[in-house]
Write a structure and sequence with these properties.
The protein is an alpha+beta fold. The protein has helices at 2-8, 12-25, 32-44, 46-63, 67-77, 108-112, 262-270, 298-309, and strands at 99-101, 104-105, 118-119, 126-129, 135-138, 143-147, 154-159, 161-165, 174-178, 181-185, 189-195, 198-205, 208-212, 221-223, 228-232, 235-238, 254-261, 278-279, 288-294, 311-315, 321-325. A hairpin with a 5-residue loop joins β4 and β5. The protein is elongated and about 85 Å long.
């Protein structure tokens, strides 16, 4: 599977050739025969065109990046133990193709991941419509790269969580890729999350084929609606089934809980807060909560949680918020 190969390592020759083609095609004296030769090179391998398109996007982002992004890239290239790193710089600001750890190409995606196409901050969500008619919803603290070239949507999840809504009737796969594996679907809705060095996939509609980064077919699994799977190393581990109707509910801007453990609900709420709500796990053990709590109105969410669970919300002099058991039967405002 060439896409899996590309996401792992691209040879020095292909990266160098792609960089040279970008420089030539952007020059003023590019000829018709040059363009024909480029198309012939792309036709030799799908990896050639994919590498060119990704490096072209990298080049464009680098030209418009700020000093902090360039510094981060330079730190990546200067990591101890990297030898014979060759840099191809185009148009001054240009493109850096990093090659060579003991003669092996640096993983291309580790470079591109430093320059996401779209990202959200803490407490933010974003809906991204793709040209194919499909869409993805980015959850809080999420970063992605998107490649809509070659008639295929490839979403690279760098961090956080996305929910994909794939247009019905697609002729080509829709792929969400992470550093740990990929989730490929045809006409479906599913979520993909990176959590604790693990890729988590939940399927709301249709089916999704999940594979570890190794790309070995024997390690893949096909998930149906309600299936949940974890991808760790070279394994896909199926977890406890989930009600498919609640998968991706967070995209509506609400946290839904049905007789759920309060500690779990507070944990979900905290992912949207710059300053987390404090609570004692042991003291709240066994407390249940039900309701719909708005992500964008944290005050209303906390009041609703307190009313539903019989707890109180306190605020200290320094502004720290804590949820505690209500020993008096009253709600602290």
């Amino acid at each position: 599977m060439e896409e899996a190969d590309l996401s792992e390592r691209v040879s020095q020759e292909v990266i160098s050739a792609a960089a040279e083609w970008i420089g030539l095609l952007d020059s003023d004296d590019v000829s018709v025969s040059d363009r024909a030769a480029f198309e012939a090179w792309c036709a030799q391998s799908q990896t050639h065109r994919q590498t060119f398109e990704r490096m072209r996007g990298f080049h464009d982002r680098l030209e418009h990046s700020d000093s902090s992004e360039r510094e981060a890239l330079q730190q990546l290239l200067d990591q101890p133990g990297r030898r014979s790193i060759r840099k191809t710089v185009l148009f001054g600001a240009g493109l850096i193709a990093a090659i060579g750890v003991a003669g092996v190409a640096v993983p291309f995606d580790s470079l591109l991941d430093r320059f996401p196409d779209h990202q959200t901050g803490r407490g933010q969500q974003q809906v991204l419509a793709l040209g194919s008619g499909s869409s993805i919803v980015l959850d809080t603290d999420t970063a992605v790269r998107v490649n809509e070239g070659s008639g295929q949507d490839d979403v690279r999840l760098i961090s956080g969580r996305v929910f994909a809504k794939v247009r019905d009737g697609r002729k080509r796969p829709f792929v969400v890729e992470t550093p740990f594996g990929s989730a490929e679907a045809m006409g479906t809705a599913y979520s993909v999350e990176i959590s604790n060095q693990t890729m988590v996939v939940e399927v709301a509609k249709s089916t999704v084929r999940v594979c570890p980064i190794s790309g070995a077919a024997r390690g893949c699994a096909t998930l149906a609606p309600g299936d949940r799977a974890l991808v760790r190393g070279d394994r896909v581990i199926k977890g406890t089934r989930v009600d498919p109707t609640v998968i991706g509910v967070w995209t509506s801007g609400w946290i839904e809980a049905v007789d759920e453990d309060l500690v779990s609900v507070l944990g979900r709420l905290n992912r949207y807060r710059v300053t987390p709500v404090g609570f004692d796990r042991e003291a709240l053990k066994g407390v249940r909560v039900s309701g719909s709590f708005p992500i964008k109105d944290q005050g209303a969410a906390l009041r609703g949680i307190a009313l539903s669970s019989g707890t109180i919300v306190t605020r200290s002099a320094d502004g720290a918020i804590t949820v505690k058991l209500d020993r008096t039967g009253s709600l602290a405002r």
